[in-house]
Amino acid sequence: MFFFFAGGLEQQVRQVLKSGAGRCISCGSRADLVGYEKVLKLFFVPVWRSPGKEPAMYCDNCKLFFPQSYSFPPPPQIDPSLPDVLRCRFCNGVVEPDFSFCPFCGSAL
């Protein structure tokens, strides 16, 4: 006798609380602050939903949920009075010439 089980637990966005609240820790794109719920699916049919305990960040680009405390800080404001300096191509933050990675978003320079 064999038993085949097709199911799992996944997270789904319930509502967007604040759009563009931070940056994704994986791809560096905009991430939204969302309320989410955990959904138990059996044979690809949702059978049970449970609300998340606290809001989380969600990246729509790479579909990643992560805690709000892990979010990158917002990029610094651009000061037009600064001379031509090395800037990150992803977040436009000013970086030192000897850096290999951006200290603001973590992307390779």
Automatic annotation (TrEMBL):
Q: Which residues form the Zinc-ribbon domain?
A: 23-106
Tell me the superkingdom of the source: Eukaryota
Extract the InterPro entries matched here.
Double_zinc_ribbon (IPR053281), Zinc_ribbon_15 (IPR031493)
Q: Which Pfam families match?
A: Zn_ribbon_15
Family annotation (PANTHER family): DOUBLE ZINC RIBBON PROTEIN MJ0416, OS05G0435400 PROTEIN
Q: What is this protein called?
A: Large-conductance mechanosensitive channel like
